[in-house]
């Protein structure tokens, strides 16, 4: 029999994006926003000297000063995954860590990224669910008041992050 393996048996390497945009720690938020928009991506691994040191999501850049450097906005430590890991492991890791993307490391080298969208397109369940207020399925995080998308969370909190 030919074709793709059932989703449960597939590996992260089959779903991840190999073409990867990264930014240096000193990159400004203005430049990071431009990079994300140009590539139509929501997650940007942050490197220093070629080594992964953090990750930013476009929601992490909201409200940031244009001249802020990514080193101040990035999330650390970075939750990563191996390319040979089963896709179900990626799904579980994203749910447990409440993240929307996992940089993929092979022997310590950044080789790609797998996102919640990649897993959903492959037929796995959503990693984050939906916003309890508006129903959005993108940029949803757990908050003290329940699951909220970034826009609803900013409205509720008055824009304070």
Notable traits:
161 residues; alpha+beta; globular; three-stranded mixed β-sheet; CBS-domain; 30% helix
Rg estimate, integer Å: 16 Å
Q: Could you give the count of β-strands?
A: 7
Please tell me the total number of domains: 2
- What CATH architecture of the largest domain would you give? Roll
* End-to-end separation: 52 Å
Measured as a percent range, the helix fraction is 25-40%
Tell me the name of the CATH homologous superfamily of the largest domain.
CBS-domain
The largest pleated sheet is described as: 3 strands, mixed
Task: Please characterize this protein's 3D structure.
Helices cover 30% and strands 22% of the residues. The protein is an alpha+beta fold and 161 residues long. It folds into 2 domains: 7-124, Roll (CBS-domain); 128-161, no CATH class. The strands form 3 sheets. It has a 3-stranded mixed β-sheet with strand order 1-2-3. A two-stranded antiparallel sheet has the order 4-5. The protein has a two-stranded antiparallel ribbon with strand order 6-7. The model has no long low-confidence stretch (mean pLDDT 85).
In terms of topology, how is this protein built?
Blueprint: H1 12-15, E1 23-24, H2 29-39, E2 43-48, E3 51-57, H3 58-61, H4 70-73, H5 87-97, E4 101-106, E5 109-115, H6 116-121, E6 140-143, E7 146-149, H7 150-157
């Amino acid at each position: 029999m030919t074709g793709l393996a059932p989703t449960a048996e597939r590996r992260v390497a089959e779903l991840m994006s190999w073409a990867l945009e990264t930014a240096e720690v000193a990159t400004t938020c203005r430049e990071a926003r431009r990079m994300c928009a140009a590539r139509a991506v929501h997650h940007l691994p942050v490197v220093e000297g070629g080594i992964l040191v953090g990750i930013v999501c476009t929601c992490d850049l909201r409200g940031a000063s244009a001249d802020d450097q990514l080193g101040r906005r990035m999330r650390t430590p970075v939750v990563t995954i191996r390319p040979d890991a089963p896709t179900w492991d990626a799904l579980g890791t994203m749910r447990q860590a409440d993240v929307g993307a996992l940089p993929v490391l092979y022997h310590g080298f950044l080789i790609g990224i797998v996102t919640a969208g990649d897993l959903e397109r492959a037929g796995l369940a959503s990693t984050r669910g939906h916003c309890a207020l508006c129903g959005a399925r993108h940029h949803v995080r757990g908050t003290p008041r329940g699951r909220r998308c970034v826009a609803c969370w900013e409205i509720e909190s008055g824009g304070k992050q």
